[in-house]
Design brief:
By secondary structure, the protein is mainly alpha-helical. The protein contains 12 helices and 3 strands; from the N terminus they run αααααααααααβββα. It is flat and about 65 Å long.
Length: about 290
């Protein structure tokens, strides 16, 4: 139950952060962008226990949300229902963590080079396509950081599930508090805490492994395609964060762009090297820098 609640809240938080950050970056109405930028940060400064108490008065059966819908005629009084269950926990978590995740994602989007965005607009791409195809891949690491931190934070919150829905089934934090305060069962409480640590640690391990793969991929020189004799390293890295540039007969390659394929006419019959005339022209060229591979 805890894993499902936190996973659903994390997913909705990520979707909301990407949507808000995307509008702040790609929105055309300056007034709407300014209003949204000023509003979305407010829940960030509200404690979880205050947020839970506010939600009890907002999403209850006689809360502000149902009374407003009944007053304006969008819902009859008989349809009013309480959301003080797992749905209320998810709503409160998303409302509280959305500003934090949006702050990280929107900041990363604002720091991007806008030349690619403007070029896509000039070619007729819509805002949704630009967001999903150009902006989001460049800030994927920041999105992952925001989701991991939000997941770990929501796993440790006691006040929200206790005040919104203290009934069974409930989250691990409520079960641990009840075991300690009511039963004095420290053994079971410690076991539940270990389960919570394992779930949080698993998410952190996945994130750290992905980050390590990205660092190793950016630090290692990319491999050229079948034309080995014509490949050279245009620069040598001076640090682990250096970027490599590989060229194969004038075709440059950047990390993440895949292997550089040589022209078919330069590949020998075995497919393992260049033809002799092409290789000689390459070695004789004085405009190429670097050492051939």
């Amino acid at each position: 139950f805890t894993l499902l609640i936190v996973a659903a809240s994390t997913l909705l938080t990520g979707i909301g952060a990407i949507a808000i950050g995307g509008y702040l970056t790609l929105g055309r109405s300056r007034t709407a962008v300014r209003i949204l930028a000023a509003i979305y940060r407010w829940p960030l400064f509200i404690p979880f226990i205050v947020a839970a108490q506010a939600m009890r008065g907002f999403i209850g059966q006689n809360g502000l949300m149902n009374n407003t819908l009944v007053f304006i005629g969008l819902m009859p009084q008989e349809w009013a229902q309480s959301f003080l269950d797992w749905r209320g926990i998810v709503i409160t978590f998303v409302w509280k963590q959305l500003p934090f995740a949006t702050l990280l994602v929107a900041g990363a989007m604002a720091a991007l080079d806008r030349s690619g965005i403007e070029a896509a607009r000039n070619l007729g791409a819509g805002r949704l396509r630009i967001l999903l195809g150009i902006v989001l891949p460049q800030v994927a690491r920041n999105v992952m950081v925001a989701l991991v931190l939000s997941f770990v934070t929501m796993m440790s919150v006691l006040s929200v599930p206790l005040m919104i829905s203290g009934q069974s089934p409930t989250m691990l934090t409520v079960a641990m508090a009840w075991r300690i305060n009511s039963l004095g069962d420290y053994g079971t409480a410690n076991a539940l805490g270990l389960v919570s640590c394992v779930m949080s640690g698993l998410v952190a391990w996945i994130w750290l492994r992905q980050a390590a793969r990205e660092r190793s991929r950016s630090a290692a020189p990319p491999a050229c395609g079948g034309c080995r004799a014509g490949c050279y390293w245009a620069s040598s890295p001076s640090s682990s964060s250096a970027r490599w540039s590989t060229s194969c007969f004038g075709r440059s390659q950047r990390p993440g762009s895949g292997r550089t394929a040589c022209p078919a006419s330069t590949v020998s019959a075995s497919g393992k090297g260049c033809s002799a005339p092409k290789a000689r022209r390459w070695k004789a060229s004085g405009s190429r820098s670097g050492s051939p591979r």
